[in-house]
Write a structure and sequence with these properties.
- By secondary structure, this protein is an alpha+beta fold.
- It has four helices and 25 strands.
- Helices cover about 15% and strands about 50% of the residues.
- Helix 1 runs antiparallel to helix 2.
Length: about 450
């Protein structure tokens, strides 16, 4: 060992340092004592060599004991290779703990152009930090895992995900704040959607993370999910006693290079409060405005019941997808119960050869350019077209109808960077905001986004 050889050399040099000066002095005084000095020096060096060998043996024994004890003691943190699809390496210990940071940053800007007769501060140019999130996730010994993510926009810190999970073969149990299985696009990360905002019905019907207990079972091309939930963690207090139950089933066969997806979901929420209200409304396909041209206002309600259907297919550069959702409101007493509806249909195509939309875990996933920037390529370029419909008028409630026609262009230079350009033509009937004396008119929305995630 290098350390042992260095130690031996230092010891020998020290020994010579002790004897050679004595030898030089002796040679000047008595040349006859030279043989005695040499003999003494040899004896001293031999003794020193024996001590060095003994020390080396002790060092080797100490290292062996430390190596054997390492698994039982607090192991040092080591850097493991990055998991598939991630950019930041995961830190692991020999005891089974792991720690991996992640995050995303999205900047949006654009404009909303409505009839000149509508005076609203939310119209015209707008911009915002759409999402600024940071989180950590990892494994806990015994088959458990954790995830914690915080949102830093709007001048406040909010919890998005806060979960403890357990993997039991094909079944995963999750407790904490997480998505409650409300459709394909809602479960697809905002990093991977084909438009800046999800379908209109997802926000209008208040799809959001809630605190609850759920289970997922997946095997082959089948997935079953279900759980019971309370409310979003920011809304939990002594006066909030609502609860809900959600379930989703997906079949996702792959036929050669054709990926298919079909799913259905059901959602029930008991408001459990005689004074409870619900309200359904939506922005004009961009988030940097607070103006809602469709809005039911507050509706007294006992419960909500929703049904959703989802379809998708991916083949090479082409993908098609669509969803529908019905939201029924159970009103108190003899009031009529309205059913509101939303849905979309979309088609997308990659202009760059070899690129395709990602799909993983029964939802859309990351686009990984075949020829990314920095490696001699231009990245991936995708164009998408969508029709989006939201109807918030039924049973004497006039919330308005929004029909939106959208185009998007997405440039993905690398796996973790993305730039988006959106245009929407929104047509309204019975809008909640009148343009002069008319509630039927059109609004144009433009938006751009720059995003990075890790």
């Amino acid at each position: 060992m290098a350390i042992h050889r260095t130690l031996s050399t230092l010891a020998l040099a020290t020994a010579l340092g002790w004897t050679i000066p004595a030898h030089a002095q002796s040679e000047q005084s008595q040349t006859g004592d030279l043989q005695a000095e040499i003999a003494a020096m040899r004896e001293q060096m031999a003794a020193m060599a024996q001590q060095i060998e003994a020390l080396e043996a002790r060092l080797e024994a100490s290292q062996s004991i430390a190596a054997a004890a390492a698994p039982r003691n607090a192991a040092p943190v080591a850097q493991a290779p990055a998991a598939a699809g991630t950019q930041v390496a995961r830190l692991e210990t020999q005891g089974g703990w792991s720690f991996q940071p992640f995050g995303r940053l999205m900047f949006d800007a654009g404009s909303v152009n409505a009839p000149a007769s509508i005076a609203d501060p939310g119209l015209g140019f707008g911009n915002e930090v759409r999402r600024a999130r940071f989180g950590v996730q990892g494994d806990i010994p015994g088959g458990f895992n954790y995830k914690m993510e915080l949102e830093f926009t709007g001048g406040e810190v909010e919890i998005t995900d806060a979960i403890l999970g357990y993997d039991a073969g094909d079944t995963t149990l999750t407790v904490g704040q997480h998505n409650n299985f409300q459709g394909l696009e809602e479960l697809t990360s905002s990093r991977f959607t084909s438009f800046m905002e999800r379908a209109a019905f997802t926000d209008a019907f208040d799809f959001q993370r809630r605190v609850g207990l759920s289970a997922s079972y997946g095997k082959g091309n089948l997935l079953f999910q279900g759980g019971v939930f309370t409310d979003n963690i920011d809304n939990l207090d002594a006066s909030n006693n609502s609860w809900g139950a959600d379930a989703r089933a997906v079949v996702a066969p792959k036929l050669g290079d054709l990926q298919l997806h079909a799913g259905a979901s059901v959602h029930y929420r008991d408001l459990n409060d005689a004074q409870a209200d619900v309200r359904y409304r939506q922005r004009p396909q961009v988030h940097f405005t607070d103006t809602r041209f469709v809005n039911t206002g507050n509706i007294g309600a006992d419960s909500e019941l929703g049904y959703g259907l989802e379809l998708a297919a991916i083949k090479g550069p082409l993908h098609v997808t669509g969803e529908t959702f019905w939201q029924q409101v159970d009103r108190p007493g003899a009031l009529a119960d309205p059913t509101f509806f939303g849905g979309y249909a979309e088609v997308g195509y990659f202009l760059t050869p070899g690129d395709s939309r990602g799909y993983k875990g029964n939802k859309f996933d990351r686009v990984k350019p075949k020829n990314p920037v920095g490696k001699g390529g231009f990245g991936a370029v995708q164009v998408n077209a969508r029709y989006d419909h939201l109807d918030l008028s039924d049973a004497a409630i006039i919330g308005g109808t929004q029909d939106s026609y959208g185009l998007s262009v997405i440039w993905t230079p690398t796996d973790y960077t993305r730039f988006m350009l959106n245009y929407w033509r929104n047509q309204y009937r019975d809008a909640a905001i009148a343009a002069g004396t008319s509630t039927d008119y059109s609004v144009d929305s433009f938006g751009v986004r720059a995003q990075v995630d890790f």
